[in-house]
Amino acid sequence: APRVLNVNVGVLGHIDSGKTALARALSTTGSTAAFDRAPQSRARGITLDLGFSCLRTALPPQMGPGPGELQFTLVDCPGHASLIRTIIGGAQIIDLMMLVIDVTKGMQTQSAECLVIGQIACQKMVVVLNKIDLLPEGKRQSAIEKMTKKMQKTLENTKFCGCPIVAVAAKPGGPEAPESENPLGVSELIEVLKSQAYLPSRDPSGNFLMAVDHCFSIKGQGTVMTGTILSGSVSLGDNVEIPALKVTKKVKSMQMFHTPVTYAMQGDRVGICVTQFDPKLLERGLICTPESLQTIHAAIISLKKIQYFRGALQTKAKFHITVGHETVMGRVMFFSPAPADFNKEIKEDVFDFERDYLYQEEYLSKDSNSSEENKENDQAGEEVQLPRQQWALLEFEKPVTCPKLCLVIGSKLDTDIHANTCRLAFHGVLLQGMEDKNYAETFLPKLKVYKLKHKEGQVERVMDDHSVIGRSLFKKETNIQIFVGLKVKLSTGEDGVIDGGFGQSGKFKIRIPDGLKPDTKTLLTLASKKKSKAGKGETTKEDESSKNDSAQPVTISLLFKRYVFDTQKKMIQS
């Protein structure tokens, strides 16, 4: 048989831009999951699930010599806002994306979200301006040119800058029109798709993992699971695990678009038949090499904020987290390298538990306002230092099953569907999953994320040349013993060490190993004299004037760091 090269083309766009009609106009062989197979989907006229169909054409010259066919598997992704989870699942198997735009409407909210997903998960794109039959013939060409220019502008700052833009009418006259109406521009579109096709890098090695999107039984044969292979390969007779159900099954037969095969690999669209398995148990999900997936309760990811998301990404906030093919609620905690390492090169796909990391109240970005210093630097006109890499700890509300190093997307799917705003907040890579349910005790203490603590107090009075009494650094009920031995600094420049409590009201004694400077002593003696005078109510004219000279009390600064997950809450000073 001549070789068939498979390229997965995602058909994405806003609801009602005509994606399904376009897939239908392009395709020659419908697959089992194709074209709105769900009854509720047909009734509502919208796509609820990923539909798949394919188009075969001669191999274009750039795909190598020799006879063969190029198969485009068209993945028709739903455009309905609440179905964005499905799209994110679909985007992970897409080599080339078709962004379908209703030429009469231009970019809409979900077209923008599809563009964002495309930038994260896809290398190449073709924009299709659909429904040109709705434009009056006399003005059609100028309207198409105008919209083409507009789209080029939109794509200017994305990785799809300069991508082809093709105008078509997939179903002239709309869904009610007779089938005899020929689509416009579709053969040109097929030529553009051929010119954009590339040999995706496929790797048969590694564990087998397949995203199943459809499961049904065939009488006398067994249960067929159809889907796209995300990694590795599969052969007849292999055992595959359905991790969500903890069952393992043997591959009895396999088909690719109605043709029996004995082997399939990454990127292929395949139906796998197993016996004695109820298809109702698995409508969609993952199947894999037995024992190769992890089921995790929490994870460490490296991440980037999506530039179109409005608003800050706050620690402790909840997001919808899409991992692999599941979307669950999760809480986040952001952290960055220690400030000294902001510019260091950091390995992309491993997480180093030996390093120290700095806790962040929110993801640091140009518009974030997390640190006070940044505001001051801004006024000084200095660049705000941003770390090269940031991470988050994700804690899921229920466990998720996923491969290692998989794509993670965080979104706010509860945002009003009709609000014209991007709901995708961040994307990243899962670096480390936590399989233990008690990860908070067993795993998190290894994670060295620290907070910088800064306390300030004041010197109350001098005891002698080498010690002073301080106040306002601790509350009355604080156990000062745990702070004994920590270093402090006076605003006048001396270094001191906390020596112990003094009395019952939270005051404490500070030892000054190098002794107080004469100026400091004078300042403090003046201040305490004033206090005693003020106490007796004797304020004279001279005091009023001298008050302004020494009104600044001497402050005490205590700086230390504390690791967020340290059970003993130790205070550490460098």
TrEMBL record:
The keyword GTP-binding is assigned to this record: yes
Location in or out of the cell: Cytoplasm; Nucleus
Coiled coil: none
Catalytic activity: GTP + H2O = GDP + phosphate + H(+)
Basic and acidic residues bias: start-end ranges: 535-547
GO cellular component: cytoplasm; nucleus
Cofactors: Mn(2+); Mg(2+)
Domain Tr-type G: 4-201
Keywords: Cytoplasm, GTP-binding, Hydrolase, Methylation, Nucleotide-binding, Nucleus, Phosphoprotein, Protein biosynthesis
Keyword Plastid: no
Residue numbers spanned by region Disordered: 527-551
GO MF term list: GTP binding; GTPase activity; translation elongation factor activity
A single BP term in Gene Ontology: selenocysteine incorporation
Job of this protein: Translation factor required for the incorporation of the rare amino acid selenocysteine encoded by UGA codons. Replaces the eRF1-eRF3-GTP ternary complex for the insertion of selenocysteine directed by the UGA codon. Insertion of selenocysteine at UGA codons is mediated by SECISBP2 and EEFSEC: SECISBP2 (1) specifically binds the SECIS sequence once the 80S ribosome encounters an in-frame UGA codon and (2) contacts the RPS27A/eS31 of the 40S ribosome before ribosome stalling.
Name of the protein in question: Selenocysteine-specific elongation factor
Organism (species): Eubucco bourcierii (red-headed barbet)
